[in-house]
Amino acid sequence: MTSITSSSYAVHFNKNAYTLLNEHLSKANYSKIFILVDENTHNCCLAPFMSEIHGDYNFEVIEIEAGEINKNIATCTQVWEVLSELDADRKSLMINVGGGVVTDLGGFVASTFKRGIDFINVPTTLLAMVDASVGGKTGVDLGSLKNQVGVINQPEMVLVVSSFLRTLEKRQMQSGFAEMLKHGLIKDKNYWNELKALDSLEAIDQLIYHSVTIKNEVVLQDPTEQNIRKILNYGHTLGHAVESYYLDHPTYDLLLHGEAIAIGMILEGYISHKLTGLPKEELADIKATFLSNYPKVSFNTEDIEAILKLLKFDKKNSHGNINFVLLNAIGTPEIDVKVAQELLEESFAYYKD
Fold first, then answer.
1. CATH homologous superfamily of domain 171-203+223-352?
2. Hey, which bits of 7-92 come out as E strands?
3. Residue 317, pLDDT score
């Protein structure tokens, strides 16, 4: 597969990714190379990744605990301290081998340690391959509030190696699939139709490539999310609130990112139908597609009230307004739409019916 070039880096695929990584390492003369993993990628991905690196380099492996619950400043502090203890300097490199938690947190740690060291992302989940590791967003959660602290900073390169997907359970694959479906909804109706007709996620390389291409095209137009890049947040305003609520709830099981965003896309689809003209049949298509791929979640009145209160923390907000990305039609988004409280509540009623 041909590499996808962004503003200051490229996304490389499969065997070519390792070839270009080795070329980069041979030329860059890094003082030390730190590889950030969590316990899952340490066990399943680190050995095959290291076996593809040729050359005599000074490697150190740093392991963090897996899961969104550990994507916080406390974990960053631990990694910063390890980097300092192991004599990392400004000519060091961090390679983040993992899902979105590892690439988001590792990118943020690298971007801030000694005011910034180089980093490379090696996403090992479908979600990270098509979303988290591409576009330069780095950061961590503040308590249960998603991605409240971070910076936009580009990696040296992103390496997408689809063989890592063999290590994932079906639920994790489905989580990433939600973001791919989103790419169809915001940019490409034909892609949406292709994805919803899939029988399985086995032959997925070309689909990953298409999703990365869509995201890259959007990011190139608006690297710092001043306008058009906001379309990538379709489903995320309510979806992130749902995800945060479940992350912090003492008795509910956690929802994966894609599971929460799938709910958000149904809710914001309903709002789109009411406010921006999304046709009724396309709304029904969106709801049916997500409910056929993701288990339905039951919300009571107390849950809904608490979720809606979390909207004030959404990153797209400005001047006290909660700004939504909605759809005029599948493939045609609209940004910065304000939504009345009653309509937000109605959207949950639509989801539940």
1. Dehydroquinate synthase-like - alpha domain (1.20.1090.10)
2. 10-13, 33-38, 59-64
3. 59
